[in-house]
């Protein structure tokens, strides 16, 4: 089962990459774009068919390694 | 005085750091990250570099190296630990120091000499300096934008854990990377674990731009 862990900087933590991309998009002519946040998606293939178990494992992975709770939030999505 | 300089895959300031401590009279050994024990050291240094290619987050993978368990035990028993640059990031990821690092505000890798002001000297590391002293030593990082929760920051001030801030040559606050309150270096509550982004080991010879690093790391010898 493929699970995605999507990590973003918390609201209030300045995202300089997002700011740079926002500026580039505005320069390209996308003038209505007001805000951009850049995060990362980590795809984890887990050898199980148990959806609940996969989510539980992914959550543990996010808490222990994939996200830093001081500055980041994460979401978990089951892909297949 | 015996110093352990821990080397991770991707560490690149290990030789400078060993040389710097030998210059001030210490005996220094390299300790490879896969070692599980630390024997009879007075100080453990996590030097700068790009451990594990900075994958995921700077310092995030190094934290799980076998040696880090021994470093944590050493620190929890009161042993002195110093993290420089990437070493500081590893100490944050290991929860041996509070807070986290994010990308520099301007997204640039900044590599230059920068002035720092001593905010607190009631600790072994900065005992040879006075509060308000200004030192000039190199910084070289892309992720030195220190972040920490406001309440924890207040505690850190109360306990004298904020030890170095970025400033200009006259001591006025000057922030190169967006770090909260221009913080460049901190320590833990027990004042035995230290982390700073600037590189004192690169300021050991006037021919290379300055010797302010000597006074700093000599604190560990006294």
In short:
Chain A has 80 residues and is an alpha+beta fold. Chain A has helices at residues 16-28, 51-66; strands spanning 2-9, 40-45, 72-78.
**What radius of gyration of chain A results from the CA coordinates?**
16 Å
> What is the number of helices of chain A?
2
Query: How many distinct helices of chain B?
Result: 5
What can be said about the biggest beta sheet of chain A? 3 strands, antiparallel
Summarize model confidence as the mean pLDDT of chain B: 96
How many domains of chain A? 1
How is this structure best described in words?
The complex is a heterodimer of chains A (80) and B (222). In chain A, 36% of the residues lie in helices and 26% in strands. Chain A has 80 residues and is of the alpha+beta class. A three-stranded antiparallel sheet of chain A has the order 2-1-3, covered by helices on one side. The termini of chain A are close together. Chain B has a single domain (2-218), classed as Class I glutamine amidotransferase (GATase) domain (Rossmann fold, 3-Layer(aba) Sandwich), CATH 3.40.50. Chain B contains five helices and eleven strands; from the N terminus they run βαββαβαββββαβββα. In chain B, the strands form two sheets. Chain B has a nine-stranded mixed sheet, sandwiched between helices. At the A-B interface, α1 of A face loops of B.
């Amino acid at each position: 089962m493929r699970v995605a862990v999507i990590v973003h900087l918390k609201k209030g933590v300045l995202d300089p990459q997002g700011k740079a991309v926002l500026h580039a998009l505005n320069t390209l002519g996308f003038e209505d774009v007001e805000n951009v946040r850049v995060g990362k998606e980590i795809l984890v293939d887990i050898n199980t068919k148990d959806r609940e178990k996969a989510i539980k494992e992914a959550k543990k992975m996010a808490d222990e390694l994939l996200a830093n709770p001081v500055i980041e939030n994460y979401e978990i999505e089951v892909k297949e | 005085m015996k110093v352990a300089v821990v080397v991770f895959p991707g560490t690149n300031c290990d030789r400078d750091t060993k040389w710097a401590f030998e210059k001030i009279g210490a005996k220094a050994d390299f300790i490879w990250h896969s070692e599980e024990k630390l024997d009879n050291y007075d100080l453990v240094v996590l030097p700068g570099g790009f451990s594990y290619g900075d994958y995921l987050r700077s310092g995030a993978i190094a934290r799980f190296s076998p040696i880090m368990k021994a470093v944590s035990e050493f620190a929890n028993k009161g042993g002195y630990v110093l993290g420089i640059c990437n070493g500081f990031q590893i100490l944050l990821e290991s929860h041996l120091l509070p807070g986290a690092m994010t990308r520099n505000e301007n997204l640039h890798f900044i590599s230059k000499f920068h002035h720092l002001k001593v905010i607190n000297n009631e600790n072994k590391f900065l005992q040879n300096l006075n509060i308000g002293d200004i030192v000039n030593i190199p910084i070289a990082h892309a992720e030195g934008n220190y972040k920490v929760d406001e309440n924890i920051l207040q505690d850190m001030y109360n306990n004298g854990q904020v030890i170095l801030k970025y400033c200009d040559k006259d001591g006025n606050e000057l922030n190169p990377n967006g770090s909260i309150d221009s913080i460049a270096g901190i320590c833990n509550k027990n004042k035995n674990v230290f982390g700073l982004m600037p590189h004192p080991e690169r300021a050991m010879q006037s021919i290379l731009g300055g010797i302010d690093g000597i006074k700093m790391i000599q604190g560990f010898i006294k």
